Amino acid sequence: RTSRRSSIIRSQLPMALGLAASVASPAGADAASPTPDYMPTFRSLRAPPEIPVATAVILLRTTQEAALDWGGPFSKPGSYQTSFNKKRTENFAAFKERYANYDLTGLFNASILETKDPRTNRLYFAFLNEVQFRTLQDGIKRPGDRDRFGRNVGDRLYQKILKGDVVGPRIAQG
After folding, report:
1. Cα–Cα nearest to 80, from 6, 37, 138, 153
2. Quick check: helix, strand or coil at residue 69?
């Protein structure tokens, strides 16, 4: 009798939680979609974690400065930024899909962007950091060069932390 009750509860639980409303028929599934339409979508729209703007800026800026000073594939003016922007655009849809259960409206709302730097969103910062390193990976091919480049970035960060660095947000405070 207990097993029958628990099986009824298990079969009724999705309906009781309102999950059945988010389930579509398998016939409506799109083969190109990473998650089929007939799978339930769980979204809590949690606020994304944040990091201090100075931390985000110093890490992203130092890596970019090191890439520009590195030369080689990045010696042509604008080549690093062009490659970075192309990769960011190509991968942004996947970023939005990956973090669909977070409230990312702060990245798209113009009034919020006037007062808050989007790089403080830890998820978006991680995305930008990943794009940076994919860009660098395409430009710096040899493992030894990648190791030297990583040490160069580390040395620059260490010096900026020791001596201080004028880092400010893109948004004017006041």
Report:
1. 138
2. helix
b/e map 85-107, b = 16+ CB within 10 Å: eebbeeeeeebeeebeebebebb
Whether 165 has a pLDDT exceeding 80, the answer reads no
* 23: number of Cβ within 10 Å: 13
Which phi and psi angles does 55 have, rounded to 5°?
-65, -45
Provide long-range contacts, Cβ within 8 A and 24+ apart, for 163-169: 165/58, 167/54, 167/57, 167/58, 167/61, 168/54, 168/57, 169/53, 169/54, 169/57, 169/117
Secondary structure of 77-140 in the HEC alphabet?
Answer: CCHHHHHHHHHHHHHHHHHHHHCCCECCHHHCCHHHHHHCCHHHEHHHHHHHHHHHHHHHHHHC
- State both tokens at 170: 């893109």
Q: What are phi and psi of 23, to 5 degrees?
A: -100, 125
- Residue of 19, 44, 41 lying closest to 102 (CA atoms): 44
Write down the pLDDT at residue 38: 54
User: How many helical (H) and strand (E) elements, i.e. helices and strands, does the chain have?
Assistant: 6, 0
Q: What is the pTM of this model?
A: 0.67
